[in-house]
Design a protein that fits this description.
315 residues; alpha/beta; Rossmann fold; eight-stranded mixed β-sheet; 8 strands
Length: 315
């Protein structure tokens, strides 16, 4: 992306201390944006904290970057991050929800406590920050922040996962949170379109702590991990920077994937076939016959995301 593409803009990036989040922070900063690097510095399961991590990344991003090291999974933290942006940058233009933890477990073995922790961190925190930032973004549109009558810079990007689109073994909590993030993205896009704020979902394929944690259960999963480990997270950051740019001011409600130098646009759930009863009382048997004849060929298989993307990436 060209230099200073985002000059004068401010961003909050959760999960900004490592991997994909860190790459996004550095790329946004290099494009001229002021950035709040939000990260507790904790382990991939959410345990522990290291406040020095966010400060270290913010320092790497330059004078226009600030650290935020508290746990972001609360409405209070969301409000504090928005206030930090308002106090230091006089506004908030970009929100990147990237923070994620993993506590994998099969549905018949997983812990409800782990479910709650993952959903709160990976989904609820994104809602809390969106809820806190969007009133400010709406006011900025009404008041034409910094651009006279031409303010079209509100951006919300949710970093999702193909685990939320395809599913994957042992990731009921993680996949469900990422699927919920898709729904949040769509509704945010609908509700903010009149304020010229876009919302998009990005499913990344890249080396990160998430790929580090993959414990392959078969050869396909082992190959997937090997491929992902070779992909730089900066390809994801480049797509995110494009979506934050003026060039993408009419791109909203979309689901993207990025795998090295490949960028995907995903289809979204829509009816693909219909059966209709011509009788007042449609029996289960008749319905079953209609399903077999008209719908069964459209059923979606149970391939996991790791199996679906089992080709070598373009790096």
């Amino acid at each position: 992306m060209s230099d200073m593409l985002l000059e004068g803009r401010s961003a909050i990036v959760t999960g900004g201390g490592r991997g994909i989040g860190e790459a996004i922070c550095e790329e946004l900063a290099s494009a001229g944006a002021s950035v709040i690097v939000a990260d507790t510095g904790g382990a991939i399961d959410g345990s522990g904290e290291d406040s020095a991590l966010a400060a270290t990344v913010a320092k790497k991003c330059g004078a226009r970057a600030l650290p935020y090291s508290k746990n972001i999974a609360s409405p209070k933290a969301a409000s504090e991050m928005v206030k930090l942006a308002m106090d230091h940058f006089a506004g908030i233009d970009i929100v990147i929800n990237c923070a994620a933890i993993l506590r994998d477990g099969l549905v018949f073995k997983g812990s409800p406590r782990d479910w709650d922790a993952v959903v709160k961190n990976n989904l609820s925190s994104a809602y809390y920050l969106t809820n806190a930032a969007t009133p400010v973004m709406r006011d900025q549109f009404k008041n034409a922040r910094g651009d006279g009558n031409n303010y079209t810079w509100g951006r919300i990007i949710n970093i999702g996962s193909t685990a939320g689109l395809y599913g994957n073994f042992g990731q009921a909590n993680y996949g469900s949170a990422k699927a919920g993030l898709f729904g949040l993205t769509r509704i945010t896009a609908m509700e903010m379109v009149r304020s010229q704020v876009t919302a998009n979902y990005v499913a990344p394929f890249a080396h990160s702590r998430v790929t580090d944690m993959i414990q392959p259960a078969n050869q396909e999963q082992a190959q997937y991990k090997d491929r992902a480990m070779r992909i730089s997270p900066y390809h994801v950051a480049n797509l995110v920077t494009y979506l934050c740019s003026d060039q993408a001011n009419d791109v909203t409600g979309q689901v993207f994937g990025v795998r090295g130098r490949e960028v995907f646009i995903f289809s979204q759930p829509r009816p693909v076939a219909t059966v209709t009863s011509t009788d007042a009382n449609w029996t289960p048997e008749k319905l079953g016959e209609a399903v077999d004849v008209n719908l069964r060929s459209h059923f979606t298989d149970l391939a996991t995301d790791l199996e679906a993307f089992n080709t070598d990436p373009i790096v």
